[in-house]
Amino acid sequence: MSPMKISTLFALGAAMLFGAATPVSKLLLGSVNPFLLAGLLYFGAGLFLAPRALRSDLRGKLRSADRKNKVYVAGSVVFGGITGPVLMLFGLELAKSASVSLWLNMEMVATMLLGHFLFKDRMTKRGTVAATGILCASILLSLDGSPVSLSGGLLVAGACLCWGLDNHFTALIDSLSPEESTFVKGIAAGVTNLLAGLLVAGKAPLSASSIVFSLAIGALSYGMSIVLYISAAQGLGATRAQLIYSSLSVFGILLACILVKETILPMQVVAMALMALSYALLFSEKHEHAHEHQAVTHTHWHRHGELHHDHTHDSLSVAAAVFGHTHEHHHEALAHSHPHVPDIHHRHTHQTDRAR
Length: 356
Description:
Layout: H1 3-28, H2 34-53, H3 58-64, H4 67-94, H5 97-103, H6 106-117, H7 125-141, H8 149-172, H9 178-201, H10 208-236, H11 238-246, H12 249-259, H13 266-283, E1 288-293, E2 296-302, H14 318-323, E3 325-331, E4 334-339
Antiparallel strand pairs: 1-4, 2-3
Helix pairs in contact: 1-5, 1-10, 1-11, 1-12, 2-4, 2-9, 2-10, 4-8, 4-9, 5-12, 6-7, 6-8, 6-11, 7-13, 8-10, 9-10, 10-11
């Protein structure tokens, strides 16, 4: 199986896990404020990844990271771990969880626009048309007749903008493994939002079972999901990973129907159809041109047997060989031409381009 296909599976797994979080979180919001719930979810993610992340010299890696990586890590914590989840949970208080599950596709539009203008994650004409289709579908979802739907939609849109920034930051972190960067985000964002929640509520209005349940949701729907997403974004580029990630928003809608007895509205069906067409259009684009790689030493998930990872190992388990692995490795300077996506190796500008 090619690295691109495995990255696609990672993105699908991330979408399924995070899609489950929206309707489940809706059940908890009746008894806890959004700050506190966001803190528990991210703290659960940090606790889940602590055994693996702390086996390495994480403090030394953070201290020795270059300025660019430190900015990416800090931005990931502030926008992706603190601000984004709180905005989303406040929006979830005001709107149906099924609608919020589909509104979250605006994250893809934000990721694409930010990638095109700020992060060298290119958009073709097809990509622009597809992004427009997804944006139109998201607007349709705000017209569900509820007097609070617009407010909820604006809050979720703000969360999506924060997560769009976070997607690019995490895709470009190459001094930490996905587990390490997710652990840092989980602990930092979890503690910050827990303190904010306690200040707002005055105390923790949760039973012990609710706390354990929230931490468990955070471990899987945030911790494991973010690790899978980062690995996918490093292998596909943040925009394409977000494309696949967003395509499973229907998973959240189905769970909303099962768990909180919400119904699927005709407008949501139209929006899902429009999104499906937009996804197909975006995923059909191709990109190839001659390009150069500078010599670099970095850390990210990868597999061997493709153009950029031909280094050898003294020993490598079967699982690591088949599903990939993460470690620091070196690339020599290289110039070649081949079809590619804006993954961690291909964030470059280009003059000649055969893109469709």
